[in-house]
What does this fold into?
Amino acid sequence: MSVIHESVSDSHVDEDVRAAIADITAHTAAIDCDDDEEDISQLFAPLTRAEVCNCIFSTWYPNFRRETIKSEIIKPLEQGFIDYLLADGIMLPDQDDIPQYSCKIEDPESSDSEWSEDENEVEGAAIDIESTSADIRRRIEILGGKVMPRMCWSAPKDASWMAMGNSLECRGPSDIYVLLKSSDKVSSDLINGRYLPKEQLGEIEHELVLRQWSNLVPSMEFRCFVKDKKLIAISQVDYEYYEFLENMRDEIETKLRLFFDDHVREKFPSDNYCYDAYVAQTVNRVYLIDFEPWTPSVDSCLFEWRELAKADSSDKSLGLRLFPKGVNAMGHFSGKYSRNRLPVEATDDQFRGSMAELIKSVAEQTRQQK
It folds into this structure.
């Protein structure tokens, strides 16, 4: 099964792109001029298996039930279900109540001439995932009829373009299977693990997580960076300018810092990590979305990893960063995961060029405002 490299999805962005992001911020001067020659990996302590496992959903969820979205965890997963997710092609039932799901696992040595012309004949092993499907239906009902799926570390955001409405909203097993089987992020996690080489990560018990559907507004999601158990920086996640955020800047930063002090700092076991939080205006509260380890393979959003790694953990000057006015990110590429629709070979250079053009545009806009 071909897997599009995650380095081109959302977690690995070229060093020159990140340096350009740093160049448009107010803190660029704090970065040494010779940083371009520095190996960024030298700024990070080796990532441990414990730090990675701390970010597995079922590890952190029990301690943060009250601070996050209501969820159901299906674990362990049957091997047949994992095989189904990794099998080529998407075979789905016509209706969710059909009791048998099966897919065709091809022999890689078979040729086209060996295929049967009888469409009703299924060669290879049939995979029965009805027990998992029944469990999914039951848990969807518990969560109110609509859910968002994810696995240990990743949600299939890169496959949302496959779904109706381009969202992760699912109402039945078939909706979930389309997203999971179409996601390169999910496939990569199942095959290779995440954050560490598979040989270092060891055996991981995979899980399917169903989160109660919440229509989250992209403008209100923020990535928080924690170093030495101190919140040193906050970034807007969505690459789009929102005028109302400027007026709420102080309020948002205050809420996120209070949330960290009251609910996160003493409960999450790692010293260095990142997490995403959602500021809900209607109910005046903050929700925890996800955790990720402190490593340069994680998207640093509007920060550059060098400045985060070199920042003094007692210094709050990095503060909250918002996407600047006058730059249309979607004018450079059609969507955050739109390149996942094509093979990586066809999109690598295009994406890098689009990001470089975007940052150049942001830099020019910043100079004009000075």
The first strand starts at residue 71 and ends at 74. The beta strands are 71-74, 147-150, 208-212, 221-227, 230-236, 273-280, 285-293, 320-321. The radius of gyration is 22 Å.
